[in-house]
């Protein structure tokens, strides 16, 4: 029988603790009015990390385990994967972790106070191979301006994809808002993959493109919006031959 705490032979981060120590990681509802108060949500004041499109929670849980001094919120639009993420987060007894079913733009635009988040991570955003679906791509100039607005001054933005077309586009637009650096090689903290998708791509021998950058200081929210309006939309060719990875993921 497959081990539920291993994916493709690779252990899931953290250790399942005795049930008496399990936590509740479900963030079941957003505020009816106003924005999230992270200090109230986590019961303390600590740097906040957002994982946008967190899938089954591997990256979010891995970071929460490794950095108990940071608070983490992972979101995804798919309820099924969030159920898996919550279960694993609960079983690991992590008080610095929450998950919610929510879209990334909705979260940043409506529910997070500008200038309050230490890090925003986005691993393998869906490239949408069908030209009719291009408008659904997450990483647009307007979205990057929103990420910049959400981060504290000098806050960290981390991005990863296995889609060459997406990566070429990201290299063009991300440096407008962030002091951006391409990460050569695998993440030192998770050499076999921070995410399920990364594990699959690596096992398939496909390149994985990684980068991170700090929010440019001196770039106001208004200036970021103006800059975004001058940049091209993500209309790149995503190469339909890569769709097989989506089926495995």
Would you mind describing this structure in some detail?
The protein has 249 residues and is an alpha/beta fold. The protein has a single domain, classed as Rossmann fold. Helices cover 31% and strands 20% of the residues. It is built from nine helices and nine strands. Helix 5 links the parallel strand 6 and strand 7. The protein is globular.
CATH superfamily: Vaccinia Virus protein VP39
Helix/strand order:
EEHEHEHEHEHEHEHEHH
Looking at the structure, the CATH topology is: Rossmann fold
CATH architecture: 3-Layer(aba) Sandwich
Number of helices: 9
CATH class value: Alpha Beta
Shape: globular
| Biggest sheet layout | 7 strands, mixed
Unreliable residue runs: none
Quickly count the domains: 1
Total beta strands: 9
Beta content: 15-25%
What order do the strands of the largest sheet run in, or round the barrel if closed?
5-4-3-6-7-9-8
- Derived structural class: alpha/beta
Radius of gyration from CA coordinates: 18 Å
> How many angstroms does the end-to-end distance come to?
20 Å
Mean pLDDT equals 94
Helix content: 25-40%
How are the elements arranged and paired?
Elements: E1 6-7, E2 10-11, H1 38-42, E3 48-52, H2 58-66, E4 71-76, H3 79-91, E5 97-101, H4 104-111, E6 117-123, H5 141-150, E7 151-161, H6 164-173, E8 178-183, H7 196-203, E9 209-215, H8 221-229, H9 243-248
Parallel strand pairs: 3-4, 3-6, 4-5, 6-7
Antiparallel strand pairs: 1-2, 7-9, 8-9
Helix pairs in contact: 5-8
């Amino acid at each position: 029988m497959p081990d539920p705490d291993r994916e493709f032979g690779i252990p899931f981060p953290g250790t399942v603790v005795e049930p008496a120590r399990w936590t509740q990681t479900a963030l079941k509802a957003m505020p009816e009015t106003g924005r999230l108060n992270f200090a109230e949500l986590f019961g303390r004041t600590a740097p906040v990390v957002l994982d946008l499109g967190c899938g089954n929670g591997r990256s979010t849980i891995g970071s929460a385990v490794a950095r108990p001094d940071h608070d983490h919120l992972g979101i995804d639009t798919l309820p099924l994967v969030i159920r898996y993420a919550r279960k694993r987060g609960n079983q690991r007894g992590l008080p610095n972790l929450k998950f919610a079913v929510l879209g990334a733009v909705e979260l940043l635009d409506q529910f997070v106070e500008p200038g309050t988040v230490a890090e925003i991570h986005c691993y393998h955003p869906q490239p949408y191979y069908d030209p009719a679906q291009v408008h659904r791509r997450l990483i647009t100039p307007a979205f990057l301006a929103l990420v910049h607005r959400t981060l504290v001054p000098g806050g960290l933005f981390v991005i990863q994809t296995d889609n060459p077309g997406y990566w070429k586009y990201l290299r063009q637009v991300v440096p407008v808002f962030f002091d951006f650096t391409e990460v050569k090689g695998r993440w030192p903290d998770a050499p076999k993959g921070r995410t399920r998708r990364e594990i699959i791509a690596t096992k398939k021998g496909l390149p994985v493109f990684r980068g991170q950058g700090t929010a440019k200081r001196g770039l106001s929210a208004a200036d970021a919006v103006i800059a975004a309006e001058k940049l091209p939309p993500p209309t790149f060719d995503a190469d339909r031959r890569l769709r097989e990875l989506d089926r495995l993921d």
